[in-house]
Amino acid sequence: MIKFNNVTKIYPRDTVVLQDISFEIKEGEFVSIVGKSGAGKSTLVHLILGLEVPTSGEVYFKDVNLNNANSSQIQEIRRKIGVIHQDYKLLPQKTVYENVAYIMQVEGRENKEIAVEVPKVLEVIGLENKINNFPNQLSGGEQQRLAIARAFVNNPDIIIADEPTGNLDPYNSYEVILLLQKINKAGKTVILATHDREIINKLGKRVVTIENGKILRDEAEGRFII
Ligand SMILES: Nc1ncnc2c1ncn2[C@@H]1O[C@H](COP(=O)(O)OP(=O)(O)O)[C@@H](O)[C@H]1O
Ligand SMILES: [Mg+2]
For the chain, what is the mean pLDDT? Predict the structure, then answer.
């Protein structure tokens, strides 16, 4: 589904972040991309989203080489990916319900459909009792769960979570990981970029470890041992 072919990424001023990286992510996988802060995890995510281009090598999304993709192809690919960030990127003036509904409205979904879907999604993330709260009336864990709802409400093929637990305590981190596992079990491909070794060790899923621009390890049931 996603393929990196000998990808090197060098930022201006000669920062070599990724060096000749090759790997593949298959449909339905749960893959953690781990490494220290500055290892290049977010760069890798940005390459998948077409927000950065490789200095050399190719990134494929399905059969599309992102190097040659035009802007409408890139748009199409981004619509198939739900992204979750460390800072939750919620709309502060909108309620929990409206934060999710808005994402569907932007996609042009019908009001009737929105009224049916949003309560279902809020139940999945466990916020069905907080539909009228504003983001600042939620805990950090609840805010991140709402951000996850926004990422999957339009039914993307892939969820990419870039340090989703970066601002959370262990309990809320665990809740977020459980939710990502639930989404994966529902058939979505999940890519989790993190430097949080606690959560990785609990997952028992594929772990790709990046260090010094290279893939140090790629293990089916990896542990994070830098
Ligand atoms: N847009 C950019 N321009 C120049 N350097 C960047 C840019 N983005 C990231 N970097 C550098 O690339 C390295 C990897 O960054 P990043 O991919 O954000 O790592 P991680 O997400 O693993 O913490 C860091 O040294 C960072 O300073
Ligand atoms: Mg990062």
Answer: 94
Minimum CA distance residue for ligand 1 atom 27: 38
- Band the pLDDT of 198: cuts 50, 70, 90: confident
Task: Find the radius of gyration of the CA atoms of the chain.
Answer: 18
- Rounded to whole angstroms, the Cα distance separating 116 from 104 reads 12
- The whole-number pLDDT of residue 226 equals 58
Does ligand 1 have an atom closer than 6 angstroms to the CB of 213?
Answer: no
Q: State how far the alpha carbon of 191 is from the alpha carbons of 5, 28, 117, 124, 159, in Å.
A: 18, 10, 24, 19, 6
Looking at residue 200, what is its pLDDT? 84
- How many C-beta neighbours within 10 Å does residue 41 have? 24
Q: Read off the pLDDT of each residue in 93-117 and give the average, rounded to a whole number.
A: 96
| Rounded Cα–Cα distance for residues 111 and 115 (Å) | 6
Return the DSSP state at 157.
S
Cβ atoms of residues 62 and 26 within 8 Å: no
> Which residue's C-alpha comes closest to atom 16 of ligand 1?
40
Report field, pTM of the whole predicted structure over 0.90: yes
Residues β-bridged to residue 207: 32, 219
Question: Per residue in 170-179, pLDDT tens?
Answer: 999 999 999 9
Q: Amino acid identity, residue 119?
A: P
> Which atom of ligand 1 is closest in space to residue 195's alpha carbon?
22
Q: 205 and 174 in contact (C-beta within 8 Å)?
A: no
